[in-house]
Amino acid sequence: MSKLIAPTLILVLTLASQAAAAGDPAKGEKLFNRCSSCHAIIKDGEFLVKGGITGPNLYGVVGRVAGSESDYRFGSERLPIGMFTDDMIRAGDEGLIWTEDNIAAYSQDPIGFIREYLNDETARPNMSVKLKKGAEDIAAYLATFNAQ
Predict the structure, then answer these.
(1) What are the helix (H) ranges across 57-127?
(2) Where residue 58 falls among pLDDT bands split at 50, 70, 90?
(3) How far is Cα 119 from Cα 30, in angstroms, rounded to an integer?
(4) What are phi and psi of 93, to 5 degrees?
């Protein structure tokens, strides 16, 4: 019977740490103002969350290929073409799909994340702001805006 206690305890602790690592969308909604100076959340032309004009639309970002948002890639009246680096597009071309986990990691160190992903010390995304706290919560909040 004691042989079962240790594996059970390890399983419980692992599940508890995974639950603790998951973000809280309600907290993320409150923290999103850190992001809204650059980013908006827009669905079919309707602003669900108003924000700045220097970052791509974050509607449906979870599950999306990095650098593929149409305004980001092709420009629009909201985001002029050519204002972004090609490194985020290159990351998407090399297979980067946004998940809650990598959105949180990217938000904590955008430059380091892209450099590591691309294995290129010269790579640089446009975002350089580092979120010290709440990245997991913001990622969970963004996941609530996925295309259905």
Answers:
(1) 70-74, 86-93, 100-108, 110-118
(2) very high
(3) 34
(4) -60, -25
State how far the Cα of 119 lies from the Cα of 131, in Å rounded to an integer: 22
Query: Can you list the positions of beta strands (E) in 2-101?
Result: 41-43, 46-49
Tell me how far CA of residue 82 lies from CA of 19, 75, 86, 129, 148, in angstroms.
Answer: 40, 7, 9, 20, 30
Closest CA to 102 of 68, 59, 132, 138: 138
Neighbours of 101 (CB within 10 A): 13
Contact between 115 and 96 (Cβ < 8 Å) = no
CB 54 within 8 Å of CB 83: yes
Side chain identity, residue 15 = L
* Greatest Cα pair distance in the chain: 67
Please indicate whether residue 147 or residue 54 has the higher confidence score (pLDDT): 54
Q: Does the pLDDT at position 9 exceed 70?
A: no
- pTM recorded for the entire structure: 0.81
Nearest-angstrom CA–CA distance, 141 and 103:
11
